[in-house]
Amino acid sequence: MNPRVSIIIPCYNHGQYIREALDSVEKVSDKSLYEVIIVNDGSKDAYTIEMMDKLAAEGYHVVNQVNQGLGKTRNNGIKIAKGDYILPLDADNRIRPEYIYKSIEILDAHPEIAMVYGDAQFFGDKDKRHVVGEFNLQNMMIENQIDACAVYRKSAWEVVGGYDEKMPIMGYEDWDMWMNMTFKNYKFHYIPEILFDYRVLGNSMLRSISITNKKKLYRYMDEKYKSYLNMDIMNQELMKLCKRNKKVALKLVFAVYFPGLLKFLVKRNIIKDPDIF
Length: 277
Description:
With 277 residues, the chain is of the alpha/beta class. The protein folds into 2 domains: 5-207, Spore Coat Polysaccharide Biosynthesis Protein SpsA, Chain A; 211-267, no CATH class. The protein is 43% helix and 21% strand. The protein has helices at 15-26, 46-57, 70-79, 97-109, 137-142, 154-160, 173-183, 211-224, 231-244, 246-257, 259-267; strands at residues 5-11, 34-41, 61-65, 85-88, 94-95, 113-124, 128-130, 151-153, 187-200. Strands 1, 2, 3, 4, 5, 6, 7, 8 and 9 form a 9-stranded mixed β-sheet that branches. Helix 1 links the parallel strand 1 and strand 2 (34-41). Helix 9 (231-244) packs antiparallel against helix 10. The longest helix is centred in the C-terminal third of the chain and has 14 residues, at 211-224. It is globular, with a radius of gyration of 19 Å. The protein starts with a strand and ends in a 10-residue tail after the last helix. The mean pLDDT is 88.
């Protein structure tokens, strides 16, 4: 009998954390519900390499590969997954057992829903609950709102072609896939509970991305989804957004209509450089 959920753990030099991730998974009492696939993405540090050997000896499914990047690493793990549902788990994070049970219950009962997600508890360099909230297309078009640690149908991953392996900046593949799913009319379901623990590290991949590279990323996304992000649609979404969130709307107005003025104001330190530009 195949597992219901395949938990895909990419690992690159995070051997010191992966045991915590696995211990959190093992708290799910019904072992028949899930499988774990660890994809070692060409780790270089000796501790991680040794840990991969240990985990394989303990019976964990460990796939070793040359370094290929996060998107391809996740795709490689999902290709061999046996579960109907996929849960990507970063090697330095942890899940709560109820994530498995509740996701299966919702996805089994509602075939129109393709993905289930919830809130995160930050730990490490920050200690607070991260409340994601109900899915909002306008906010998602500006920046990613949902972490990679979500449970989704493998069939949806197949339809959208998996994670984009050509993303100019690693670490945003999940945002691209959520956008791709959205524009293919897949539905998302939000559970307003803490379902996983997200380790905040000062030297994390996403924290170290420069403004220049972020601009490169947004140009890539604009080009990829230009048929959905034309000006008529943007104007409609702006009107909706202005009614709900003036701060986000102001950022979007600057980005779309006054990029030159925005650059001037940032250069003169009149306004702080917003994260999304």
